Amino acid sequence: MNKLLLILLILNLQNVAEAFTSESTFYKSAVKVLEKQVIQEADWALTQTPVTVTNDFAERSAGGKHDFFSEADYFWPDPKNPEGPYINIDGKSNPANFVAHRKAMIRLSKIIGALASAYKITKDEKYVKHAVLHLRAWFVDKETLMTPNLQFSQAVKGRYTGRNYGIIDTIHLLEVAQGMMILELSNAFDPLIANDIKKWFIMYNKWLTTSEMGLKEKVVKNNHSTCWLIQVASFAKLCGDEALLDYCRTRYKTVLLSNQMADNGSFPLELERTKPYGYAIFNLDAMAIACQILSTPKDNLWNYETPDKKSIKKGINFLFPYIKNKGKWTYPEDIMFHEFWPVAQPFLIFGAVAYSNASYFNVWKQLTHYPDNEEVIRNFPIRNPLIWL
């Protein structure tokens, strides 16, 4: 072999080894940070019985027993007409609205995420067997399953029986899908049950990509379309739909990144909201999740730049100083819950691995990993990063 070619080959192999070691190092470091709490969460999950949408029914729902129902957070009774249609107060969540189904879904996400994380660390199949009970209840068993659409989500009293904006509620199925990909590696996961569960996600993705509500949500100009994409991508990955994954990669590059990001890496439509700090974090997390789900060796979205130099790295570099030191935030404070942000945002741990950046990792390590504020939890769908690395 030519000596120069041999040297280049060795250097290339060293680069591959260094990249692998870097990812492996961050993963091992993350396990050290999270292992104790992961096992605690998983032990809690082992004591939980399934709770699905059929456990609670709202009389205001236009759907049936199996239909997911929620009411839009920022809508309130009109002081001028208390019995009339609700009115919008952006950024202020109405605690009286029905959110029991969303809470049940968040609970499912916590349970599957914890069990999958614990299984990944320990290889103990007790975590797999218990996870299957919950997955069957939500997606297979006829008495308790959820209908695979969100036709009645984020309803508004006196105005809408459901809205496309409610599709964002199922971001909490991201860790369910990702967790299942870890869990089904076990011999304790019956492949026939796994296929039945995947059929539900195939049907849901069909609804997301073909229904009037799904298509309307896809083209919203802010974080809603980002969250539409990460859901479709996540469920397509679970079900092996390569065509849909390719579509999502193209849309991330040509639509989301191009249209939502400013030249400085910020998201102007999020900064215009009444909760600019929380929404800026939320949309950056969602963009990072898209890169984590969709990147391949041949098409690494972490390194992608638009023709006008927009990239996920630029987005992280814009926001990171405000995460590291919240006191530097130069935009208005959120009208609610400002004090609860940031937490251990997924863009930090994913970015740390993608760019071998210890600074991102160290900030992530120091932040709260299991928040208990309901508003934060609602906007923090990735709580178990071990299953994503």
Concise overview:
55% of the residues lie in helices and 3% in strands. About 5% of the residues have low confidence.
> Taking all residues together, what is the mean pLDDT?
93
Strands of the widest sheet, in order across it, are 1-4
What pattern of helices and strands is seen along the backbone? HEEEHHEHHHHHHHHHHH
The major pleated sheet works out as:
2 strands, parallel
Give start-end ranges of low-pLDDT stretches.
4-21
Helix fraction by DSSP (H/I, runs of at least 4)? 55-70%
CATH architectural arrangement? Alpha/alpha barrel
The total strand number stands at 4
CATH class: Mainly Alpha
Between the first and last Cα atoms, what is the distance in angstroms?
37 Å
Keywords:
389 residues; mainly alpha; Glycosyltransferase; 4 strands; 55% helix; globular
What does this structure look like?
The structure is a single chain. The protein is built from 14 helices and four strands. It has helices spanning 3-46, 100-122, 126-139, 174-183, 191-210, 212-218, 223-239, 242-260, 268-271, 276-294, 312-324, 346-355, 358-366, 374-378, and strands at 69-71, 75-76, 87-88, 152-155. It has one domain: Glycosyltransferase, CATH 1.50.10.100. The relative contact order is 0.11. With 389 residues, it is mostly helical.
List the helices and strands and how they pair.
Layout: H1 3-46, E1 69-71, E2 75-76, E3 87-88, H2 100-122, H3 126-139, E4 152-155, H4 174-183, H5 191-210, H6 212-218, H7 223-239, H8 242-260, H9 268-271, H10 276-294, H11 312-324, H12 346-355, H13 358-366, H14 374-378
Parallel strand pairs: 1-4
Antiparallel strand pairs: 2-3
